From TrEMBL, chains A, B:
It comes from Aquirufa echingensis. Pfam families: NUDIX, WHD_NrtR. This is NUDIX domain-containing protein. Residues 23-179 form the Nudix hydrolase domain. PANTHER family: ADP-RIBOSE PYROPHOSPHATASE, SLR1690 PROTEIN. InterPro entries: NUDIX_hydrolase-like_dom_sf (IPR015797), NUDIX_hydrolase_dom (IPR000086), WH-like_DNA-bd_sf (IPR036388), WH_DNA-bd_sf (IPR036390), WHD_NrtR (IPR054105). Transmembrane segments: none annotated.
Length: 254, 254
DNA sequence: ACAAAAGTGTTCCTTTTACACCCATGC
DNA sequence: GCATGGGTGTAAAAGGAACACTTTTGT
């Protein structure tokens, strides 16, 4: 593989690479949150090179596209999902944010990589990166590896591996911003399937905020917010009262 | 004046212009808030050209400097103030954010402006701009015009003129973000002089949040927060009880 | 002594938290 | 019937809003 292709793939684009089409020194990093097994997870690609390089889904911004559009494009390519809930949360702009260290590590372990110096220089310059986080229904996502990825995995936020560059800081800030937005009480919509029980919703809250809620008070809070509709009961076969299913009101979100 | 100098001045730098030193297509826009006469004001430069062009203090990012550093540099140049409270709040990245319309309007009214095509092209490309807001003690600021400015004025947020580009949107978002941060109850520190009375602090809150507070409850709230120290009384000569002066505790901010 | 404005205390109400009870389900 | 978990009601506690009262200052 050539550096050219590497950069093209890193850009989130599978088409012919040409850095002329992108804004130089500006990138987008995405933190994709999913929720499964009462755990908050992040979609993390592992690069298909020697050495354990974990990164974040990222890419560049085309000249003719909005910043938000670019983030959406990157996300859709990776998740095969449209209409993703997406929030810009921070710009990472330290002067030492460049890919040189990463590339040196990568090339040391993978000497077969070659490519034009020009492309390499373009890529290892200092980059300012806009952080976006996304909330997705983990069951609907079909993780799509880029040409560079060995695999993409949902990793619990508590068990993240060492990430290249400032990935750890980016995720930490994303989590903080997400929690803040969660208080609006409509954001959870995006992490759950269409229908869910009150208990499932409560578990989501407990996971996100990392604190327990009382069953009855939680139910009262949600119902008072008037953001969910009650549907039919869900008979699980268990020897107890069947819980109602709920769905978020169509008007109260997006 | 040449376009070259115009761009140099716009960049917030008074030194010899060279766009090589800056990150291309990335700019910083600052919303500088001050507080005076029970009014929230923004420092707005008016450009020294024919036509009423009002802008925001802005500039570009040098290759070797952090994003935050760049914002601080721009702010210090304009206010002659160090240690400014500064917050990044949003990135404006729509694809149609370019200076071409503004430049056409400007050149139509000021045909004497000339300069190399190259510089012009650099400047009118699409720009992604990082928004920062600052809170300053309005009495300490000595507004410093750039070479381009006819004047710089503190304009009440309610009475803003038409700004070039998306200035209005930027200020609106800055105000929203500032109000949000204000809830931390330490931010007000930066808008007031060293010492102040409880009434002055209350008026600040009433201005920022645009709603009345009750005198006694407000006092209780602030004292309970434990963020201010009570100093000596301030005798104004008025025929009433002298109010205490307060100052923010040195530990509770920054 | 009085008016004006600052400081403090006290009650009332709303919201939040904690506890208790009842209801449905399958064995 | 009974164990299990879901739904609802109510009391206690906390927090906030409104009101009243006291203190200080210069005339």
């Amino acid at each position: 593989m050539k550096i050219t292709e590497l950069i093209a793939a890193m850009s989130g684009s599978f088409t012919h690479p040409s850095h002329q089409n992108y804004i130089a020194q500006l990138s987008i990093d995405c933190v994709i949150f999913g929720y499964q097994d009462a755990t908050l997870k992040v979609l993390i690609p592992k690069l298909n090179f020697k050495g354990d390089f974990y990164s974040l889904p990222s890419g560049f911004v085309r000249q003719e596209e909005d910043l938000d559009q670019a983030a959406l494009r990157i996300l859709e390519e990776r998740t095969q999902l449209a209409n993703i809930y997406l929030q810009q949360f921070h710009v990472f702009g330290n002067a030492d944010r460049h890919n040189e260290r990463f590339m040196l590590d990568l090339l040391a372990l993978n000497p077969q990589l070659t490519g034009p110096q020009e492309e390499y220089d373009w890529y290892v310059r200092r980059f300012v990166s806009v952080g976006y986080y996304a909330l997705v229904d983990i069951n609907k996502v079909k993780p799509q590896c880029s040409e560079l990825d060995e695999k993409m995995e949902w990793i619990p936020v508590q068990e993240l591996p060492k990430l290249i560059l400032d990935g750890a800081e980016i995720i930490a800030k994303a989590l903080k911003a997400m929690r803040l937005h969660f208080d609006d009480h409509v954001v959870g919509y995006n992490l759950l399937p269409e229908t869910f029980t009150m208990k499932e919703l409560q578990q989501l809250y407990e996971t996100v905020f990392d604190k327990p809620y009382r069953r009855n008070n939680f139910q009262k809070m949600i119902l008072d917010l008037n953001i969910v509709d009650r549907l039919e009961k869900q008979f699980t076969g268990a020897a107890n009262k069947a819980p109602y299913l709920y769905t978020f009101k169509p008007t109260s979100n997006k």
